[in-house]
Design a protein that fits this description.
The complex is a heterodimer of chains A (105) and B (122). Chain A contains no helices and eleven strands. Chain A is an all-beta fold and 105 residues long. In chain A, a hairpin with a 3-residue loop joins strand 5 and strand 6. With 122 residues, chain B is mostly beta strands. In chain B, the strands form two sheets. In chain B, strands 2, 4, 5, 6, 9, 10 and 11 form a seven-stranded mixed β-sheet that branches. Helices cover 0% and strands 48% of the residues of chain B. The radius of gyration of chain B is 13 Å and the shape is globular. In chain B, a hairpin with an 8-residue loop joins strand 9 and strand 10. The chains are: A mainly beta (105), B mainly beta (122). Chains A and B meet through strand 5 and strand 10 of A and strand 5 and strand 10 of B.
Amino acid sequence: EIVMTQSPATLSVSPGERATLSCRASQSVSSNLAWYQQKPGQAPRLLIYGASTRATGIPARFSGSGSGTEFTLTISGLQSEDFAVYYCQQYNNWYSFGQGTKLEI
Amino acid sequence: QLQLQESGPGLVKPSETLSLTCSVSGGSISRSSYYWGWIRQPPGKGLEWIASIYYTGRTYYNPSLKSRVTTSVDTSKNQFSLSLSSVTAADTAVYYCARPYGPQQLVPFDSWGQGALVTVSS
């Protein structure tokens, strides 16, 4: 099983600033890495796949980078609707998710 | 527009079998080539993939749950189902059905149901 570890667990950022979230895989997942956003009471929303490709309808302020075992999700110019929990997911070997990073104001 | 809707009992007794169905509208399970997925989320915790099923019935399972999971597809009703046996309190979770963004492969999910909370308790 590939274990995904996200850091930090909680990130406090002010609106308008930039947030950087990290995800590490226990072994290489190539570029088979996705990011999701989840708000309370809602299903997850796919943001990024292929480590850096934005899903349909995702604003350009969301960007992903990395390959192998180290990945980053960057959110530039944070807006109020961006405060949520973010999960990374590898799909190189079945699926596994990180434990999440809560982005708070 | 594709819509997925989970249904099933909200309360299951320990040691019994949890059964859920996902009804798909706005798209045909049998005329598409997707691996339809089940994912769960215990209250206040993270996401766990359970299984992914093709319209032919071919299924990929999370190895940690495989011994307790059964899946099926009913193309006439445009539904797919999940059964999880010998449940314990640790199986209490919101259960989601979902479709990946691309066909014929295990890739991220871009369409999700609203989720169904299943509580395991006597």
